[in-house]
Amino acid sequence: MNRSMAGKVAIVTGAGPGVGRSCALALAGDGAELALAARRKEPLEALAAEVSEATGRRVVAVPTDIAHHDSAAALADTAAAELGRVDAVVNVATLGGAVRSTVTDIDWGDYRRAVEVNVIGTLEVSRRAAEHMKAAGGGSIVQISTLGTHSVPEKMAIYTSTKSAVHTASLVMARELGPHNIRVNIVTPGYITGDNLDQLWQGIAAQTGKTAQQVSDRAARAAALNRHVDPGDIAEAVLFLASERSRGVTGLEIRVDAGQMIG
User: Fold this and answer.
1) 256 membership: H or E segment, kind and range
2) Most buried of 35, 130, 155, 226 (most Cβ within 10 A)?
């Protein structure tokens, strides 16, 4: 049985540098046609062209802001209209942890914006895609989560609580959509190499008097594999869950964290 993504159509939200780009390349490299979604049109179209040229697959850019209900709702319909069907959706798009606040000092406007993206937008894309998957005889939804739902870092309640909400809702979806042969799973990354992680280490270094490399090395030593993970590591787990290779897997969280949170 061919369990690759050949002949399948996948949606990737948050299709930008890092995890979104790596997921797009992995899925298209395995044979999928893609609908890539992100807010900014020009970088999105450039990524679509890059992925198409690298893999030979058809890739369409669908500018989407999942914080806006109509935009999130239209994504799956646009993908199906352009590419004929929807078999998988990978939700990378997120409103991250840039806004840091203790729970007692939370600005409810900041919280509502996080809910709109991380919960409502993500679930709207998921449920709309699921309707097209039912017509196709099944499919796969993959949510990208965060280790913060386990480690509960201080001043990150806005981000971690909204990601926890979509995590729980996704497990419920796995139960509800299972009879339609639609699987719902979660990939939780560890520290992902790239510009954002470099900025984190630099910020910590400035507060501690250590170098950014020393801060990075210390965090890596805390992981069982003594390293951080790359966007491509996340993409491989996503590809497994999006394809029929994982046809017996649903309601599962896979932590791709180099053993950061063992136990």
Assistant:
1) strand 253-256
2) 35
